[in-house]
Amino acid sequence: MHMGDPSLASMLPFDSIGQIGQIGQIGLYEQPKPRFIFKMPRVVPDQKGKFEQDELFRRLGRESDVRYTGYRDRPTEERQVRFQTGCREGHTEVAFVATGTNIQLVFHTGTNGYTHGEHGRECDFEKEHGKVHLRSHFIMNGVCVRWRGWIDLERLEGIGCLEFDEKAAAIEDAMLRDQIERYNQRLRDFDEKQRAYRQQQERLDTELDARHGGHGGHAAQRHALGHAPPGSVPPGPHPHLPMQYRA
């Protein structure tokens, strides 16, 4: 049996057919590269460290002037109404005056038009006359933070700051670790499949080598004993050769 024998194809896996005749590549199959989609994490690994060291967070972490930024092209009276309406619906837009950082605040609206969080009202019109006190939780630049402050209902200006949200950060950290672990597990599963595939190919190559070696050994043994292999021409002059070609 030799490399060009078509019967060899039936001994190989399907993925090796078509590569017969290429020495050193029998049974080899280049698997497609894996496509692992890693979802962008919502938070950074060290949220508290970034909140304490990042210059922007350090500036926004100090109480400073803020103002309502919605509907700036409308009259003051209309903006006042829209601001209070938005707060009761559970949203508003504010900006830090010093840095120009705009933030969309969102609350969970209650049935009475006021919003309540785990630590009390997140939108409170009753705490101080003529003002609304706000608190909103969100993720900013990969860090869980809490906006806390108040806005004057007439001037639409006030004081606010960002605080590090310990509880939300712990929840997001756990989710991040779980996401990374699931991604690493997929990589380990893929490596294991690759290892099993290579071992299978090595066993296949070993079996093919054994088959080639076995046929060659039998042929040499038959030749040494004076037996011609099946289909071979017996020794001596061929009976159908003309006399001038006979030895």
UniProtKB/TrEMBL annotation:
It comes from the Eukaryota. GO terms for molecular function: sequence-specific DNA binding; transcription coactivator activity. GO terms for biological process: regulation of hemocyte proliferation; regulation of transcription by RNA polymerase II. One of its GO terms (cellular component) is core-binding factor complex. The keyword Transmembrane does not apply. InterPro entries: CBF_beta, CBF_bsu_sf. It is found in: Nucleus. Keywords: Nucleus. Residues 209-247 are annotated as: Disordered. Its main location: nucleus. Belongs to the CBF-beta family. Regulates the DNA-binding properties of Runt. PANTHER family: CORE-BINDING FACTOR SUBUNIT BETA, CORE-BINDING FACTOR, BETA SUBUNIT. This is Protein big brother-like. It comes from Thrips palmi (Melon thrips).
